[in-house]
Structures are given as C-alpha cells and as structure tokens.
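testing teh design pipeline on a random one, pls ignore if ur not involved
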C-alpha cells in the first residue's frame, strides 16, 4: 500500500510538473502547475524541495504584479474573457464539414486551406472547452486572491521581495 501511494504521488507530481511546463505556452496556470508538481515531488526528492521556494515566490511575485495597476487588472480580465470566447469556439466547433444546410458558424467548419489531418482542427473538442473554462475560473480566483493580498499594499510586496531574495540565497548556498 505504501509503494502504491508513493507511485501515485510520483505520477501525479510529474504529471502536474509536465502540464505546468506545457501551460507556460498553452492556456492555463503554468506556474501553479509547476508549483503543485514540485510540492508533491518535494516529498520524495531533495532537488524538488530546493526548487520549491523560488518557484513559489516567483509565482507570488507574478500575482502581485498582476494587480499593480487598473490597466493590468483590466488585461487580466480581458484574458479571462478571451478564455471564455475560445471555450465557446471549441464547444460549438465542429471538426468536420457540417451537413448541408447546417447553421454552424463558418469559422467552426474545417477550412479548405487546412492541410493537417481533419482531427487536428479545434483539437480536443468539448474537453478543451471545459479545460479553458476551468482555466478561466482558476485565473479569476487567483486574480481575486492577488487583489486582496497585494493591491495597494506596498509592504506586502516589499516582504515578498525580501522572501525572494532569501530563497534565492538559500538555493545558491545549497548549490555550492
């Protein structure tokens, strides 16, 4: 039973870490995935534990910067709306040619210029739409958290900067 738990946690940790790395380039909370993966892997690996604090503080720094100004907050909210729009496209999208007389929007139909296999148009279908909506809810929750913790609180940002400096120094000392 202990071995099964260890293997399960390791699979989950590596899965979150790889998904987080992918979400740096794809829609989704990449740093959150990386942090979650490292947090789980840190229970078994010293290298993951050493890297956990710097990633945690960098993620919090990004959160603090996202609510520095009304413009950044507006862009974050626009990003959430963009995720919903993409989810809507994937939800109603069609990976093939619709029946004659179909009312499907033209942008959801496989275009003539598409040279890749048909299954790669709006890949993932409704599952992708669901993950995009989930990403939007996570982004909104993180935005609210960031706003409550950091907006208009320079002392909280200064404390975070000091924690980042300490974590970086600890990491570099451990590397020697």
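output:
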């Amino acid at each position: 039973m202990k071995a099964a738990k260890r293997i399960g946690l390791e699979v989950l940790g590596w899965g979150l870490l790889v998904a987080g790395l992918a979400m740096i380039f794809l829609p989704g909370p990449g740093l959150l995935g990386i942090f979650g993966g490292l947090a789980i892997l840190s229970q078994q690996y010293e290298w993951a534990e050493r890297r956990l604090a710097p990633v945690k503080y960098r993620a919090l720094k990004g959160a603090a910067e996202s609510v520095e100004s009304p413009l950044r907050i507006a862009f974050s909210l626009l990003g959430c709306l963009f995720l919903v729009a993409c989810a809507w496209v994937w939800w109603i999208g069609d990976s093939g040619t619709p029946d004659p007389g179909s009312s499907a929007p033209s942008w959801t139909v496989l275009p003539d210029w598409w040279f890749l296999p048909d299954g790669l148009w709006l890949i993932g279908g409704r599952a992708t739409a669901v993950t995009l909506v989930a990403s939007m809810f996570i982004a909104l929750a993180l935005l609210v958290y960031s706003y409550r913790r950091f907006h208009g609180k320079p002392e909280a940002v200064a404390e975070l900067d000091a924690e980042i400096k300490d974590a970086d120094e600890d990491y570099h000392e451990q590397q020697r």
